[in-house]
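Handoff note, outgoing to incoming analyst
You'll be picking up this chain. Sequence as last confirmed:
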Amino acid sequence: MALFLLIDTQRYKNYLPLFIAGKCIGIFTMLVWSFVSKHLLITDWFSGYNVIAEIIFLCGDLIALAAILTVFRDMNKNLNELTMNTADSPDTEVKQCE
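Most recent structure output, in case you need it:
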């Protein structure tokens, strides 16, 4: 989804809040699982391999979230600039009915 949003932001902009919420939920659950599995010793017998996988998945989710939040910020900035430019343009004429 991050790739499609980076390629064509305008086409997929309606899905942006859903994607951000999903990434935040994924990161939160990964952190909770890491905490629970380490402190309750659920995965003690393969904890070394588990830690590497958790770090890889967590880094991937954080990078994707950072990229999408950057796109979201740029999209909002461009939208604000576009709105300000159309509202302040001096060449717009107000037509009055006679």
